[in-house]
Write the C-alpha cells for this entry.
Amino acid sequence: MSDMKIRLVKFYDKKGKCVNDGDEFTYVTFQIGKEERPVEGDVLVQVTNLEGIPIIVAKYLIEKYGTGGYGRPEFVNSLEDIKKYGVAEEIVEEIRNICKSKGINWV
C-alpha cells in the first residue's frame, strides 16, 4: 500500500459547507488512494477540530452494478487506528502534521 498518497484535503464548516484553507473550519477530510479518481480500496478519513469526537474512516467500494462510493463509515479513536485500513505510517504522519498545523493538536 506504499503507493497510496493523500489525493485530496478539504475543509468544512459546521454546516458541512466546503471552506477555503485558512478559513474557520470544523472538520477536515483526507482522501487517500493510488490514483487521481477513487478506486476500490481507497480510504476517506475525517478529523474534527473538537477533541473527543472519533475519527471517521470509510473504504471506497465498487458495487455489483459498477458504481462506487465510500462504504459505511467506522469510528476510531486515534490516527494510529487507521493503519488497519491499509494506510501507511508515512501517510498517518502526514495527516497528523497537517492536523497539527491547523490547530488540531489532539490527534
